[in-house]
Task: inverse folding
């Protein structure tokens, strides 16, 4: 399909475009922009094959342990007090009124007046070689806990779901900033040119509260936004050929289009025409590579048993298995969302003693299988896996409208929550950070969302202060004006 | 690896610096704006600017720059570089002491420039954009061939110095398509193309005809909707529906009626405060009710009311002034002389409206569809005792039968309800500081202190002759719509961190003509722009042009951008004969793949529209902020959460999938194929007809051969809906020349 000559010309043209246009517009506008240049076009112009393709593989400027990220977001914010942060002292205070000092000057979403303390609802025990405390709701995870680092002292700035999810994914609590997946694919490109570089998989039947903005590209070019792949229906929107069209027919149509486009190139000399020819060929290849990657029926029975998967559903388990398949194929950033963790106790589905248990069952086995599976394939050390919600839950029982509620639940809490990280540059078998006896404040090694982002980028070989993009008159970065790398958890 | 990279950066920067400024030669007179500010902004301002003032020194305001420091001596002694501390510090032998700290030293050229500037008296200059424009002289040029109007003088004067020449006029077929897409967002009719090519329709008549077309208003509304961050929902978690479409219809009428941009501005920002404000003036104020609402349970309504006011301030400055006020929310502007308090003076202007992140969206006004509105207006007037002629024929019940929609509008708080505005320390609304009075930043007032108490006075100041930016920002925006990039490429930032204008005199010439001679008429401005040879020239680019000016900054050829998301869709529907010309009304829901709207806490459903509503122009498509229409997003349309001045065009495989596979495009191709099949003559005639219908010029023999071959390829799946002619039509609707403007 390709005229070799034409494509040699394409590369030369691309390089010409890049050197001047990029330099003039981006690289001379400030120090921040210089760093951008070093990550994208400007610096790499002598790297063979690095043309205008925004997804061309880019080597990170620093030493990278992780090549990719699998981020498991639990939308709605799981309770740390029922999973990772064991508080025997809180159990003793169960049912007692909350001390006034914990309420003064604090903002809660629903708690009113003086709520009662709520002890841990499940049993905890030390697990693995490391003796990391885990709740009985995570039986499978207890088998892989020595590969993970549990961080108990996370904190955030936002206490409502949509803003907090935005904060977790874009480093800012309002709409309009690029998501971390966009930043990473902008900084590093992708390793498999036949698949999108940033793929999003959603389970639980709902998109997160903040909508698709949590995988949006904000002010970065839209090419860096996450591409949602689906387990049912078309795996990517508009991927399937129109009804009644064969793949062979499609190939011939694209061949004709590109042939006439070559003619246009001769008339107008526009380098974008050559890029378009390339993009049409890529679209054709993706039509084969995406369904292949997304088809879990190709996995052996043992894998389905390990993950607990049933092909054809859009479950967290299916998505976890897909995450491994995509990681294997060199996708740079794989983002999973699972819905339904908002355990206020306002209804059965969102009660700590009911729906919450189901959520744990839905993820415990699959997320543990993912670690095990990556590990046995030798992929864990180059894949950074992160699990967590957007904030934590209060050590007090929620009393919506000042009343005792039927179901047991906890309100939104920003001061501390737990996440875990594993693989790609992270030291396994440790916990990091401590909270007070009530599980209210982080008291040691507090980790801000910016710090988490800085650490993730560090594992990928990127200095978070240098990955910038100039917008509205200033260089922006994922960590805004904050962020410090958590040296103690690095492998 | 790291040191190598650093070295590479350094070498490249050096190479780059050399390319930009011929090294060595010092100018006779060192200018602050031309020579010094770029160095300071790049190397010094992050420590000595609006955010930090290390050692008490800031370069942001002239008075601060010459202020005595801790040892009571100023850093810069005018006329005496030798004894100025600034020189001692940039030349210091101890790397710990040398400025800039922890960075590479300034180049010897930069040091020489600063030395000479201080010796010449260290004259400070206001940034170009904050000095009101003047009528510049029209430059004389050598190349006088095909001069269309003075615009070409300004362009050619620069081409001359770059060793470039303007292209000849484009082929007529390309020119009429370009003009029609630019002015109306739709391709021309075949009959107009034939008349224009044969010479029976003149270019000027064609321009006027397109300016008069009702399609004109729809096309320019598409531009404004990005600025207004227009959407049909409220944003955030629930992202519930809200009736905003009447505002979109107002824009269409305003652009079609060529409402002067100064009147337009007053109505967008303060229609409710105009003396004798009518319903139409109130509808216009919905501009600032496009801010988002957060209806999520447990949110602090005051927090999100303030977020909306902040968005109004930032949007207003970005749209009318090309100034990035977002920075000043938390601290003084890092690069431009705007103080932290000044942000809250502007905040105070917008902080006094009745809306408040409430679920009921109040205040709202009842509006009706275009068909119902006149009836409703006259009935209401009749019922309230206003005598109207002719008397309405409808009884009162009919008003109740007509479906009313609630459009959110702006309403000023009065008397004791008025809000007091305080500075938010570090931008945090819980940390309230000093009380501030309404007002505009001093730097934008061009030396004339102006009294501003409310939105109306603020809007009046924006369009007053003393405002340095409004006209420039607007002509630059329109220029970018026609020429792919602005004379100032950073449409959103005219401040000192934005790019400098490529043709500063042309920018001022256009700003002065637009705001004075043309009395803010957009149609006159557009007519003026498209009558230039610069606009009419061919888009072909030679290797020499590409090499000398790869970014086409100097405009030796017309741009060849990919069409916008809206035009891509509208064009496919138009050439296949599917496009509905129906205007106005509630947003419609054309085909969208299953399962896109799976959002939380909302029962909202995408219910596919029926009949011609499936084929309406893209500006009528329903926009849900958290789940925008997917094929439009793929073509770089924004999700309308915030004001967007400039879409960044991408070229991706996902776009190819939309135009190849999206049922909307397949249906268009099938329709085009039907028209081709019905066309009389041979297969070659039929294919040639379809090709011409899409791109308006005769098919080349080579392309014809390619498409005939495609037609004759055996289709293995007989009985499929994709006929041989459909295959050809799909190919035509995916051609580079169809997806771009030539």
Result:
């Amino acid at each position: 399909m390709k005229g070799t000559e034409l494509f040699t010309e394409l590369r030369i043209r691309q390089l010409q475009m890049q050197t001047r246009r990029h330099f003039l517009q981006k690289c001379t506008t400030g120090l921040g922009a210089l760093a951008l240049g070093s990550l994208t076009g400007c610096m790499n112009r002598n790297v063979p094959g690095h043309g205008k393709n925004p997804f061309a593989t880019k080597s990170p400027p620093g030493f990278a342990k992780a090549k990719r990220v699998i981020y498991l977001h639990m939308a709605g914010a799981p309770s740390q007090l029922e999973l990772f942060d064991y508080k025997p002292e809180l159990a003793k205070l169960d049912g007692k009124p909350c001390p006034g000092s914990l309420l003064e000057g604090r903002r809660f979403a629903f708690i009113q007046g003086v709520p009662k303390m709520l002890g841990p609802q499940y049993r905890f025990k030390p697990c693995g070689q490391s003796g990391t405390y885990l709740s009985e709701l995570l039986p499978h995870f207890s088998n892989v806990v020595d590969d993970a680092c549990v961080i108990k002292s996370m904190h955030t700035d936002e206490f409502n779901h949509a803003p907090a999810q935005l904060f977790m994914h874009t480093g800012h609590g309002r709409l309009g900033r690029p998501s971390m997946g966009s930043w990473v694919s902008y900084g590093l490109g992708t390793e498999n040119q036949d698949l999108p570089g940033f793929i999003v998989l959603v389970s639980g039947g709902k998109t997160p509260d903040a909508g698709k903005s949590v995988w949006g590209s904000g002010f970065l070019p839209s090419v860096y936004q996450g591409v949602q792949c689906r387990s049912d229906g078309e795996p990517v929107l508009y991927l399937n050929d129109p009804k009644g069209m064969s793949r062979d027919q499609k190939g011939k149509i694209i061949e004709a289009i590109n042939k006439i486009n070559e003619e246009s190139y001769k008339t107008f000399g526009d380098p974008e025409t050559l890029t378009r020819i390339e993009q049409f060929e890529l679209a054709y290849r993706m039509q084969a590579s995406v369904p292949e990657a997304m088809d879990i029926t190709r996995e052996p029975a043992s894998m389905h048993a390990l993950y607990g998967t049933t092909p054809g559903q859009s479950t967290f388990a299916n998505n976890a298995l897909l995450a491994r398949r995509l990681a294997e194929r060199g996708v740079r950033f794989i983002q999973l969302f699972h819905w339904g963790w908002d355990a206020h106790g306002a209804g059965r589905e969102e009660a700590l003693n009911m729906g919450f248990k189901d959520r744990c069952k839905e993820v415990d086995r699959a997320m543990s299988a993912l670690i095990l599976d990556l590990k046995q394939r030798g992929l864990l050390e180059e894949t950074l896996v992160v699990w967590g919600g957007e904030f934590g839950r209060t050590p007090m029982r929620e009393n919506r409208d000042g009343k005792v509620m039927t179901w047991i639940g906890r309100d939104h809490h920003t001061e501390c929550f737990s996440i875990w990280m594993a693989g790609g540059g992270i030291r396994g078998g440790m916990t990091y950070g401590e909270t007070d006896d009530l599980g209210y404040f982080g008291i040691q090694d507090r980790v801000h969302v910016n710090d988490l982002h800085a650490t993730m980028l560090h594992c990928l070989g990127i200095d978070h202060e240098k990955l910038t993009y100039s917008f509205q008159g200033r260089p922006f970065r994922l960590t805004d004006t904050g962020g410090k790398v958590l040296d103690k958890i690095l492998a | 690896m790291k040191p190598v990279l650093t070295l590479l950066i350094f070498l490249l920067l050096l190479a780059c610096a050399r390319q930009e400024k011929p090294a060595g030669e010092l100018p006779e007179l060192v200018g602050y704006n031309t020579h010094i500010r770029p160095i300071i902004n790049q190397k010094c301002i992050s420590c000595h600017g609006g955010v930090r003032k290390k050692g008490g020194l800031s370069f942001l305001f002239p008075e601060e720059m010459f202020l005595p420091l801790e040892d009571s001596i100023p850093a810069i002694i005018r006329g005496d570089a030798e004894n100025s501390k600034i020189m001692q510090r940039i030349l210091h032998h101890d790397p710990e002491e040398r400025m800039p700290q922890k960075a590479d030293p300034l180049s010897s050229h930069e040091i020489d420039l600063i030395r000479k500037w201080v010796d010449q008296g260290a004259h400070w200059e206001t940034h170009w954009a904050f000095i009101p424009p003047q009528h510049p002289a029209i430059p004389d040029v050598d190349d006088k061939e095909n001069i269309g109007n003075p615009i070409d003088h300004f362009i050619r004067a620069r081409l001359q110095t770059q060793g470039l020449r303007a292209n000849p006029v484009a082929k007529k077929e390309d020119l009429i398509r370009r003009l029609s897409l630019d002015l109306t967002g739709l391709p021309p009719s075949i009959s107009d193309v034939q008349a224009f090519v044969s010479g029976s329709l003149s270019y000027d008549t064609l321009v006027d005809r397109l300016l008069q077309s009702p399609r004109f208003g729809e096309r320019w509304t598409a531009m404004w909707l990005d600025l207004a961050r227009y959407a049909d929902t409220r944003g955030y978690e629930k992202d519930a529906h809200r009736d905003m479409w009447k505002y979109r219809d107002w824009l269409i009428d305003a652009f079609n009626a060529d409402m002067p941009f100064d009147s337009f501005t007053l109505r967008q920002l303060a229609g409710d405060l105009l003396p004798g404000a009518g319903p139409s003036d109130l509808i216009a104020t919905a501009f600032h009710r496009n801010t988002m609402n957060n209806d999520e349970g447990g949110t602090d309504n005051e927090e999100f009311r303030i977020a909306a006011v902040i968005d109004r301030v930032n949007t207003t400055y970005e749209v009318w002034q090309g100034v990035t006020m977002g920075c000043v929310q938390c601290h003084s502007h890092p690069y431009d002389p705007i103080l932290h308090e000044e942000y809250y003076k502007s905040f105070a202007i917008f902080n006094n409206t009745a809306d408040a992140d409430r679920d009921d969206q109040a205040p709202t006004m009842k509006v009706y569809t275009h068909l119902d509105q006149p009836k409703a207006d006259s009935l209401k007037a009749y019922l309230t005792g206003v005598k109207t002629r002719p008397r309405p024929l409808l009884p009162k019940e009919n008003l109740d039968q007509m479906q009313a929609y609630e459009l959110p509008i702006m309403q000023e708080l009065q008397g004791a309800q008025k809000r007091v505005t305080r500075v938010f320390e570090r931008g945090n609304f819980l940390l309230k500081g000093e009380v501030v009075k309404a007002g505009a930043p001093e730097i934008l007032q061009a030396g004339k202190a102006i009294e501003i108490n409310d939105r109306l006075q603020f809007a009046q100041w924006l369009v007053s002759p003393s405002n340095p930016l409004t006209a420039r920002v607007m002509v630059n925006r329109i220029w970018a719509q026609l020429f792919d990039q602005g004379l100032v490429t950073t449409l959103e930032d005219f401040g000192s961190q934005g790019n400098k204008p490529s043709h500063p005199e042309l920018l001022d010439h256009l700003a002065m003509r637009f705001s004075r001679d043309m009395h803010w008429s957009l149609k006159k401005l557009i007519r003026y722009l498209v009558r230039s040879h610069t606009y009419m020239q061919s888009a072909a680019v030679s290797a020499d042009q590409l090499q000398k000016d790869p970014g086409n900054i100097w405009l030796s050829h017309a741009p060849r951008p990919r069409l916008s998301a809206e035009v891509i869709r509208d064009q496919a529907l138009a050439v296949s004969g599917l496009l509905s010309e129906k205007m106005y009304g509630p947003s419609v829901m054309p085909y969208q793949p299953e399962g896109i709207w799976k959002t939380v806490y909302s029962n909202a459903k995408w219910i596919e529209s029926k009949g011609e509503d499936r084929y309406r122009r893209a500006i009528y498509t329903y926009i849900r902020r958290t789940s925008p229409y997917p094929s439009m997003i793929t073509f770089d349309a924004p999700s309308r959460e915030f004001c967007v001045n400039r879409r960044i065009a991408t070229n991706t495989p996902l776009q190819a999938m939309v135009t190849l596979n999206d049922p909307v495009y397949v249906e268009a191709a099938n329709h085009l194929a039907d028209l081709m099949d019905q066309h009389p003559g041979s297969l070659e005639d039929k294919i040639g007809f379809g090709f011409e219908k899409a791109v308006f010029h005769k098919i080349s023999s080579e392309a014809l051969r390619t498409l005939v071959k495609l037609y004759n390829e055996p289709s293995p799946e007989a009985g499929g809906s994709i006929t041989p002619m459909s295959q050809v039509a799909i190919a035509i609707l995916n051609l580079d020349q169809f997806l771009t403007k030539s």
In short: DSSP finds eleven helices and 17 strands in chain A. The domain at 66-232+312-465 of chain A is CATH 3.40.720.10 (Alkaline Phosphatase, subunit A).
